[in-house]
Design goal:
1099 residues, mainly beta, Immunoglobulin-like, Ferric Hydroxamate Uptake Protein, Chain A, domain 1, 22-stranded antiparallel beta barrel, 5-stranded mixed sheet, 13 helices, 9% helix, globular, disordered N terminus, SusC/RagA family TonB-linked outer membrane protein
Length: 1099
């Protein structure tokens, strides 16, 4: 045994010695040619004739290296260092080999591809060959004016990309590309990150039984510091590669990758403060009490003292709230002058830090990034923290095979103001409540000497006759400080992408991606906010559902995506070129949720359903949705000038029944490279001239989980009070794809070697077979409506223009770049069913008719035309269409009626469209729509030596907004505080004013009319930045590659005639179906003025 072991050891030693003898050791130094200093960290590679790396090593601090040379023929030694020109020498048996590297003429930061590589899209086409409407945006400059979200970076930067962002930290954004394409289908663009669709995440109130795409949040958990570029795909030709998921446009986001060479580090840090630009002018305590007395006496005089309501109003006149009775126990609590809006506001701040590391060699490159963001909003209780990390790696096995892997993880903590429906209605947000809260009321209990006890909130259950449960009245200061609405979200993303060159003309691309999202929402509404008693006021045997109310919800989503793609590209005789591709994409989304609501909890920390609280509601659900998409595309290029493309898509969706599940969508495009014609070759002005035309179809499937399936529900007290199971929704066998026909014609023009670039596009999108909801059925069927069906037609048409002046001024010290875009989209509903349950109009103050009518745009406002105030008695007489006074049978003038009540001098005057003397639903007219007529923006960057000044502007023209905040603060009908505009209200006959009289609890002086529909056009300076870059000779002494300081102001200037705090208003669902969406200013947090100071380091 010992002899065998010795023989074995001798054989191993012999083999090892032979292997070592077959290798030669090469040594040497790598220096910088200009200075002669060592290039520590430079890379030395040994490569064979196939450019395969056999060995590599990094140069040490003295510039020396030592590397073993394999026993192979035709080897080369490559020396490289980031920012230096590579040096390659043939290996001929040298023992010592030194190298001196020169500085590259182009400084490299973080790049995603080498300069020689031609970028191609998913179909294998270069930007020059693309026939679709595509706009690209480089993220250059974001390091000097960083933003906290992708949506903020895109605002005003690209034509016909309309974005409205919220001002609260982490709030959602509305993104529309070329308008709204669907009523009930998905209306948000698809987001693709590094070639993989970015799945939307689940809201905390997600309902799997009736979910729509609007129930998903579109927040992107991507740090802008990680983004290299963004592309926007608009027409059917450009989005064909993504199927129906791209029906509303596609945002393609490419993140930064590692670069070959020395390890490089980047560190960015910034601090920001922000404050609201202006406040809302409200009445003080004395003015408010005077208004309330005026309103109450006007109602008493109209009704007469004998009426029951008049007695109620007399009691309110004598109430502690406005009577300032020193004998009252609450005299001190109702004898102050509170600025409630100031009490719920603060100066916000943001801290943003990011760090990245990148590098690699010939075979592998990598980039690792870490980020931390903390943002406090200007409304107390609104803040967000984001922890993010991302790792990208590319490994090249050979000339034919390379693999890219990506891992990212994001953890968000978002605190926002509490929100939940109370008795079916959403209460005002804390800012809205602060605007309307009585100013003479204290947020806190007071001491005997009139000092505030700031640790004890004053939240009476009944406040001037109003309660939390019935009127959603609460203490907004307690709400922002004590109520909890915390969302913890985790997002993990892992993807692998493989590229293999089967033949020189045939390539395979494979992708597998997995995204896991998890959300936990915790809400808590303590009694300190609402003042509700422990025992229910309606039944003393029951606990109150809103006493220390708690909600706990968790949502999980797992998204799996696979893609297989073949791309064929071959040129024949330098004349004919064919690019053909075939896709197969499969995706699956699995989601689960759980929710519990309890009341009577001891505290926020003891509010879990297991701690013994009163259980109000429990819910849970799970779902799985799948889709499959195939795409076959071929493009023929003749003489590299004439281009013809045909694409055929086949897609299946589990949301449709089996016989309509598969949709087929063709696309065709043609293009002409006019600039490459022989007759254009002898001029030097026009460098690019491409004409392109395309037509194609895309579609939308219903949202939700198998919505075509008939469902059954259980009823514990149904027919004859017996438990039963009954059919609750009808089987839908004929639901089909919604189809959008898209036409596009465009021209791309480059002048002076593309220093001046023009892009012009004309388009028309027609949505046919529209997805609809709630078609009424006869009650004899046992169902009230059909959940989904296809009917109707809608059109979006418009134009886009963009000009880029790239280094239009470029001297030794000066550089100037300018970009401008402007676009228009016109929407029109061409055909619409008349039997949909959407015409639920309630004649009341503040109510508009929520309608969709053929011939008008989507998002239209319908209401009355406001004509001012009835100045005197004669002015209140009804008149026919010819202006003649209408008399009754006794010959006496008829007084106009607002609904069922006759008007008095000082009441609001509305146009009587049909001249019948009654203002009712027959007088409702079209008042405009929320879609802007024109959107656009411009930006510039001016550089002088080491200084740089840059600015971005965004504008919208012709958007109509319902100023609900103004309506609530000029209504003068309840106990809410009002705007100082009400100081000019009508009081006596002969007063000439546009403000009606105060009238408590009655009248119709604030009907939904054009009085509150305002033009919200604006031009806003989104950012202005002053940056200083330290000279290279100084940064080199500090061992840095770059050192920048910058100062940025956000939203510093806004030019608008809009009377609200912020003209940038997003759309809001106005009905239960979600079909009617209008732009409503509901006192959300306005855009603050923000000032940021930052530092960027590269080393």
């Amino acid at each position: 045994m010992k002899i065998t072991r010795k023989i074995y050891l001798l054989l191993v030693a012999f083999v090892v010695s032979q292997a070592m003898a077959a290798q030669t050791v090469l040594t040497g130094k790598v220096l910088e040619k200009a200075s002669g200093e060592p290039l520590a960290g430079a890379s030395v590679f040994v490569q064979n004739k196939d450019e395969r790396t056999l060995a590599s090593v990094l140069v040490d601090a003295n510039g020396e290296y030592r590397i073993k040379i394999p026993d192979e023929q035709n080897l080369v030694i490559n020396f490289s260092f980031i920012g230096m020109q590579s040096y390659t020498v043939k290996y001929t048996g040298q023992k010592v080999l030194n190298a001196s590297l020169s500085e590259d003429s182009h400084e490299l930061d973080e790049v995603s591809v080498s300069a020689k590589r031609v970028e191609r899209n998913q179909m294998g086409l270069t930007p020059r060959e693309e026939l679709g409407a595509v706009q690209r945006m480089s993220m250059e400059g974001l390091e000097t004016a960083p933003v906290t979200s992708v949506a903020e970076a895109l605002q005003g930067a690209l034509s016909n990309v309309d974005i409205v962002t919220g001002a609260d930290p982490g709030s959602n954004s509305t993104i529309r590309i070329r308008g709204t394409q669907s009523l009930n289908g998905n209306v948000d663009p698809l987001i693709v990150v590094n070639g993989v669709p970015f799945p939307v995440s689940i809201d905390d109130d997600f309902d799997f039984a009736s979910a729509s795409t609007d129930d998903y949040s579109q927040l992107l958990d991507i740090s802008p510091a990680d983004i290299e570029s963004i592309e926007v795909l608009k027409d059917a030709q450009a989005t064909a590669m993504w199927g129906t998921k791209g029906a509303n446009g596609v945002l393609v986001i490419n993140t930064k990758k590692g670069a070959k060479g020395k390890i490089s580090f980047t560190f960015n840090t910034s601090a920001e403060v922000k404050k609201e630009a202006n406040t809302y002018p409200l009445l003080n305590a004395a003015q408010y009490v005077s208004l309330m007395q005026d309103a109450l006496w006007n109602s008493i005089n109209d009704l007469g003292y004998s009426s029951s309501n008049a007695q109620t109003y007399l009691d309110l006149l004598n109430s502690d709230e406005i009577n300032f009775n020193p004998q009252s126990l609450l005299f001190n609590e109702y004898n102050v002058d509170t600025d409630w809006l100031d009490e719920v506001s603060r100066i916000g701040y943001t801290v943003d830090n990011s760090f990245s590391m990148s590098g690699g060699g010939d075979k592998a490159t990598y980039r690792l990034s870490l980020g931390y963001l903390k943002e406090n909003g200007t409304t107390i209780g609104a803040d967000v923290q984001r922890f993010s990390t991302r790792f990208n790696m590319n490994y090249r096995f050979s000339k034919k095979l390379d693999i890219t892997s990506e891992f990212s993880f994001t953890y968000n903590i978002r605190n926002s103001n509490w929100s939940e429906k109370v008795n079916g209605k959403e209460p005002s947000n804390p800012r809205g409540m602060a605007i309307n809260k009585m100013p003479q009321e204290s947020p806190y209990f007071m001491t005997a000497d009139g000092s505030a006890r700031t640790n004890t909130y004053f939240s009476p259950y009944e406040d001037f006759g109003e309660t939390f449960i019935d009127n959603r009245n609460y203490n907004p200061v307690a709400m922002v400080n004590e109520a909890v609405n915390r969302l913890d979200s985790y997002s993990t993303r892992l993807s692998f992408q493989l590229h293999y060159q089967i033949l020189p003309v045939l390539n395979y691309y494979g992708t597998v991606a997995l995204t896991a999202d998890s959300k936990r929402t915790k809400k808590y509404l303590p009694n300190e906010v609402s003042g509700v008693p422990w025992i229910s006021t309606s039944d003393p045997n029951l606990a109150n559902d809103w006493y220390n109310r708690s909600s706990d919800a968790s949502n999980e989503q797992l998204y799996l995506y696979t893609e297989n793609r073949l791309v064929y590209n071959q040129t024949f005789n330098d004349i004919h070129n064919i690019v053909a591709s075939g896709f197969l994409q499969i995706e699956q989304t699995t989601a689960t949720n759980y929710g519990a609501q309890t009341a009577g909890n001891a505290s926020y920390y003891l509010s879990d359903p297991s701690t013994g609280g009163y259980i109000v509601d429990l819910s849970s659900g799970e779902s799985t949705t799948r889709s499959m998409f195939s795409n076959f595309s071929a493009q023929y290029n003749l003489f590299d000038r004439y281009m013809f493309n045909a694409t055929f898509q086949v897609e299946g969706s589990s949301a449709l029944p089996s016989h309509t599940r598969w949709g087929m969508f063709p696309t065709f495009g043609i293009g002409w490279q006019l600039g490459d014609e022989p007759f254009m070759m002898n001029q030097e002005v026009i460098s690019l001239a491409k004409l392109r035309v395309s037509w194609g179809q895309t579609g939308n499937a219903p949202s939700g989980v198998s919505p075509y399936v008939g469902t059954f529900s259980a009823n514990s007290s149904g027919y004859l009070d017996m438990p039963s199971i009954y059919p609750s929704s009808i089987q839908l066998d004929n639901i089909d794809w919604e189809v959008v026909d898209k036409w596009n014609a465009g021209i791309d023009l480059g002048i002076l070697n593309d220093r001046i670039l023009f892009t012009v596009d004309l388009y028309k999108n027609v949505t046919n077979n529209m997805l609809q909801k709630k078609m009424k059925l006869p009650t004899s069927t046992g169902f009230s409506n059909i959940a989904w069906f296809n009917s109707g037609k809608m059109t979006n048409r418009g134009w886009e223009f963009r000009i880029d002046l790239n280094d239009i001024v470029k001297t030794k010290d000066w550089r100037f770049t300018f970009s401008f875009n402007i676009s228009q989209n016109e929407n029109k509903v061409n055909e619409f069913p008349s039997n949909l349950d959407m015409e639920n109009y309630e004649f009341d103050n503040g109510k508009y008719a929520y309608l969709i009518m053929s011939g008008n745009p989507l998002g239209s406002f319908y209401g009355y035309r406001y004509k001012g105030v009835y100045q005197n008695t004669e002015d209140t007489y009804a008149r026919d269409l010819n202006g003649n006074i209408i008399n009754d049978i006794n010959g006496k003038p008829v007084v106009v009626q607002n609904g069922t009540e006759k008007v008095y001098p000082g009441d609001a005057k509305y146009e009587d469209i049909n001249g019948d003397g009654v203002i009712d639903a027959n007088d409702i007219v079209y008042l405009g729509n929320y879609s802007p007529k024109i959107i656009g923006g411009f930006n510039f960057r001016l550089s002088y030596k080491n200084w740089q000044l840059s600015a971005n502007f965004q504008g919208r023209v012709g958007q109509k907004v319902f100023n609900q905040t103004r309506l609530n603060s000029e209504m003068m009908r309840g106990k809410s505080n009002q705007s100082t505009a009400t100081l000019r209200r009508w009081r006596n006959e002969g007063d000439v004013t546009d403000m009606p009289r105060a009238l408590y609890g009655r009248g119709y002086n604030s009907l939904g009319s054009d009085r509150y529909i305002e033009d919200a056009s604006f031009l806003r300076m989104k950012t202005i930045t002053l940056k200083y870059s330290f000279p290279k000779n100084l940064t080199k002494k500090m061992h840095l590659t770059a050192f920048d300081l910058y100062l940025t102001a956000y939203d510093l200037l806004t030019f608008t005639k809009y009377s609200g705090q912020d003209p940038e208003v997003s759309e809001k669902k106005m009905d239960d179906s979600g079909i009617v969406r209008l732009a409503v200013d509901g006192a959300s947090t306005p855009k603050p003025i923000r000032v940021k100071f930052g530092i960027n380091l590269r080393f």
